[in-house]
UniProtKB/TrEMBL annotation:
Residues 12-238 form the THIF-type NAD/FAD binding fold domain. InterPro entries: ThiF/MoeB/HesA (IPR045886), ThiF_NAD_FAD-bd (IPR000594), Ubiquitin-activating_enz (IPR035985). Gene3D superfamilies: NAD(P)-binding Rossmann-like Domain. GO terms for biological process: cyclic threonylcarbamoyladenosine biosynthetic process. This is Thiamine biosynthesis protein ThiF.
Amino acid sequence: MDKDWLERTELLIKEDGLEKLNKANVLIVGLGGVGSFAAEFLARTGIGNMTIVDGDTVDITNINRQLPALHSTVGKHKVDVVSERLLDINPKLNLNKINEFLNPERMDEVLDAETFDYILDCIDSVTPKLSLMKAAKKRKIKIVSSMGAGGKIDPSKVVVRDISKTRNCYLAKILRKRLKKENINKGIRCVFSNELQNEDSLKMTDGSNYKRSFYGTISYIPAIFGLYAASEVITHLIKN
């Protein structure tokens, strides 16, 4: 592997660390504000194998917070825009792209198709998020899950904890309740903000793609969620 572009990384994590990242295989589900940044940070660290999943196209309303969203990319598939960017960062990246919203049945299929070292759950709706968590737990695959980044503005309040330790996040609260019914009370790492949501920023939707509502979002908070998720994965892979 031509490692000139990873020279600064190698100084920090040594050749052994680079090798571990190059051999690693990660799955990122959801390429919105959180997932797109997480994918970029992973690619820039030298992760060797990656599968990215999203069935969405870039919308004009994504421009305020999502990496693939530009006026020139509106209407294009997010997996195509992100994959082009990732391969421009690392042309040797073994990249698999899945252009679809994973329904619960497909989760099993995707997770059984290859061996993943880590899963990044960057889905923003409850039902598919729950399915991915359950599928990962069932297979004992490490997973880090992004909770709600909307309605938040203070970057210092973003932390990574076990799902049992999440607070001040409606998405996490719903998921804890639903997971409890499946006898899952802990064991899922979550990126969340313990800042109270700004209730004035809530908007209801038509309910398409499992999404009934969303909060207003500032540019940098989803990116910080993606940063924390990527950091969780990278530090785990280097240690192991």
